[in-house]
Design brief:
alpha/beta, Rossmann fold, 2 domains, 10 helices, globular
């Protein structure tokens, strides 16, 4: 288990992380979310020991994280951190040896992952000769080559097309099945929803939303109703409990204050013609994120 307890980090008088706490179990993918400058990268660096905490406690399986346990950790940084004059093979061997692996084991795993990512022919290519997407794959491989117990992924899908993003998703799930604890950060909320059971949202280094994603959605009273059929948007907007109504693709989306108001909308819709869809949906994480983060900034003004 990774345990972060009441962790605070100051840079001089600036508080970058404010009394942050969370826990991650084996085989769990945990979302650490926030806008740029929220304190995510500082938190990652404290976890792996690159930065000292100002206060608080961070442990992995009950032990302080130092050089004796860093071989159990993999870290995919948002920024490229590859040595571009090395070949793919040389780069991965270098990182694997730093993690205490034998070269023969590194090469075996490297061949497996290159095949998985459909880039086996790039093994002897220099990093600088690869596209940004393929460099991202190599950087990911260097992070997981040692089958880490703890894997930190900072914007892993940055710059990837949908096909390669799906490959990364499959690879992350493979790591999860092996029991890795995974901290996942992304600005793409739909990707977070696919992966994360539990999460924390940071604003100015402080948690403004934390817990189980299903429970967060359940507690967030606002709902959406998706309708396909002949309805009048202006009439929908006039119904009690309706916050907004608008067209999106071939559907009409109605936002209501809470599920109890769905009956008011249904009473109108059942009088309309050609209704082929009426569905009350949970809010997206993106909606919740925008409201929670936006509310903090509004309260500061």
């Amino acid at each position: 288990m990774l345990s972060v307890e009441n962790v605070t980090k100051y840079y001089g008088d600036f508080k970058a992380v404010d009394n942050l706490s969370f826990k991650i179990d084996k085989g769990e993918i945990f979302g650490l979310l926030g806008v740029n400058g929220a304190g995510k990268t500082t938190t990652f660096r404290m976890i792996i020991g690159l930065l000292n905490k100002s206060s608080g406690k961070i442990t992995l399986d009950g032990k302080k994280i130092d050089y004796s346990v860093t071989d159990k950790i993999g870290f995919l940084t948002e920024e490229r951190s590859l040595l571009t004059k090395l070949t793919v093979k040389e780069q991965v061997i270098y990182y694997g040896i730093l993690k205490g692996m034998k070269e023969e084991d590194i090469l075996k795993k490297l061949d497996e992952w290159l095949k998985f990512f459909n880039i086996a022919e790039y093994k002897e290519r220099k990093i600088k000769e690869l596209s940004k997407g393929n460099q991202q794959k190599i950087q990911f491989i260097t992070a997981i080559i040692n089958d880490p117990e703890l894997l930190i992924l900072d914007e892993p899908f940055s710059g990837l097309d949908p096909i390669n993003a799906q490959l990364f998703m499959d690879a992350i799930k493979m790591c999860q099945k092996k029991g890795s604890m995974i901290i996942f950060s992304s600005h793409r909320m739909e990707q977070v929803e696919q992966f994360c059971e539990n999460l924390v949202v940071l604003v100015n280094g402080k948690s403004v939303l934390q817990g189980n994603l299903k429970e967060i959605k359940k507690d967030y009273r606002k709902k959406n109703i998706s309708i396909i059929g002949d309805v009048d948007i202006l009439k929908l907007k006039s119904i009690e409990g309706v916050i907004d109504a608008f067209e999106e693709a071939n559907e009409v989306i109605v936002k209501i204050k809470s599920e109890e108001y769905s009956k008011n909308v249904f009473d109108y819709v059942k009088k309309c013609k050609n209704i082929i869809k009426y569905e009350v949906e949970e809010p997206t994480l993106n909606e919740i994120f925008i409201e929670k983060v936006g509310a903090v900034y509004e309260n500061k003004d």
